[in-house]
Design goal:
Number of domains: 2
CATH topology of the largest domain: D-Amino Acid Oxidase, Chain A, domain 2
Helix content: 25-40%
Number of helices: 12
Strand order of the largest sheet: 6-5-14-15-16-13-17
CATH class of the largest domain: Alpha Beta
Largest sheet: 7 strands, mixed
Structural class: alpha/beta
Bound molecules: flavin-adenine dinucleotide
Oligomer: single chain
């Protein structure tokens, strides 16, 4: 008998889970609260561990159509001194997939096309989820209810599914913001296949191409929480580096900010009976290692494999969380550590960007 999955949230986790389970023969409904899928946001850095999942479900060509394959990752000090160069051009051989830059809007469109509009319910805001005998039941703000064999809460950092099952959680309150903006690669004379990171004593800045001649930058610094003009002034003063040119090339209307939060105490469980969580709903993570979406994709892969190989949904969900909670924990910790700018500058003396060692050990789970 065909099994039915209700997936709450039409972000990267939810859409990918919908495609994956659909290809395994499940009947899938993805319920998104907003009247349209994400159109806002800047770019996203996809790493091999996430790309491998997208390629596994047949999206390699679609991804190549929208993304930019990166062949180098360069790190500089804020006055432009080179700190490290990582040649990532051979990552398909090394890790089975390359490093990519994509525009979030294009990724969202690519995933929803692969899912199929018939499986997507927009304007469906989950308000609660419960178990009812041999089914899980979702209630939506529009008054609808839906019953399924499994419910996946893929509804992001403020997850209603998580709150329904595990209650409200305490978030870190560092009041750190990450700022992002879009620019044309040619206007800043940037390399079209290189990601760049720039470290200062009290902040950092990075940028990468995302396709269509566009690139995005991300930046955070102590005390820069409110004002766009302060951000422009602060990073515009990093002379000697490429940052002032990138800032000058940025269309100010594209600059956005997000508060950065993870959980004070990561969840000990993600599942209860037929209900489980994935992505930011399960494990909000700071973007220090650019791993939030990549970890979300890994969640989906393990979840779907478990659902395909265990006899009961409950045992599949228990196995899934058993594998993934242990894998994500060190990534969350290391992502936070990369917001320690002084610590990073210490490492800079060794001419290394610690990101690559951490990625290798913690995301690829390989011995150095
Ligand atoms: C500034 C910044 C930069 C980042 N950069 C990177 C990066 O370069 N690489 C990387 O891998 N990660 C990055 N991340 C992390 C990444 O964006 C997230 O980890 C990823 O988007 C999580 O995807 P998700 O699908 O789990 O959640 P989301 O993307 O948050 O999607 C959740 C979806 O659920 C919907 N929803 C919410 N509530 C409900 C409800 N009640 N009912 C129904 N639908 C609901 C939302 O509208 C949304 O569409 C970054 C994060 C930030 C803040």
């Amino acid at each position: 008998m065909t099994r039915h999955a209700i997936i709450c949230g039409g972000g990267i986790s939810g859409l990918t889970a919908g495609i994956y389970l659909g290809r395994m023969g499940w009947d899938v409904t993805v319920c998104e609260k907003d009247p349209e899928l994400r159109t806002a946001g800047a770019g996203l850095n996809l790493w091999p561990n996430g790309i491998r999942v997208l390629e596994k479900i047949g999206l390699r060509q679609a991804l190549e159509n929208i993304g930019v394959f990166l062949n180098a990752y360069r790190t500089f000090s804020s006055n432009g001194e080179p700190i490290a160069v990582e040649d990532v051009s051979g990552w398909r051989e090394k890790y089975g997939a390359p490093l990519y830059g994509v525009h979030r809007r294009n990724l969202s469109r690519m995933l929803s096309d692969a899912l199929g509009q018939d499986k997507l319910r927009l304007g469906h805001e989950l308000v609660s989820v419960q178990q009812d005998g041999s089914e899980a039941v979702c209630t939506f703000g529009n008054g609808e209810t839906m019953r399924g064999d499994v419910v996946l809460g893929a509804d992001g950092v403020t997850s209603v599914a998580r709150n329904s099952v595990f209650g409200p959680q305490e978030f870190s309150a560092d009041e750190q913001m990450r700022w992002r903006g879009l620019f044309n690669v040619a206007d800043a004379d940037a390399d079209p296949n290189t990601e760049v990171e720039v470290w200062g004593t009290d902040g950092h800045f990075g940028c990468l191409p995302i396709g269509g001649g566009k690139a995005y930058w991300f930046a955070a610094a102590d005390g820069l929480t409110q004002d766009v003009e302060e951000v422009v002034d602060f990073f515009g003063s990093w002379r000697g580096s490429l940052v002032p040119a990138v800032i000058a090339a940025t269309d100010k209307s594209t600059i956005i900010r997000n508060s950065l939060r993870d959980l004070v105490r990561p969840l000990k469980n993600w599942s209860s009976g037929r209900i489980t969580l994935a992505g930011d709903a399960a494990h909000p993570v700071l973007p220090g290692m650019a791993q939030g979406a990549n970890q979300a994709l890994e969640d989906v892969d393990v979840l779907c494999q478990c659902l395909g190989s265990y006899g009961s949904v409950e045992s599949a969900l228990a196995a899934y969380e058993g594998i993934r909670i242990a894998q994500v924990a060190p990534v969350i910790k290391a992502s936070r550590a990369l917001f320690d700018y002084e610590g990073q500058n210490e490492v800079a003396k060794g001419n290394k960007n610690p990101l690559f060692d951490r990625y290798h050990r913690l995301a690829e789970r390989r011995v150095v």
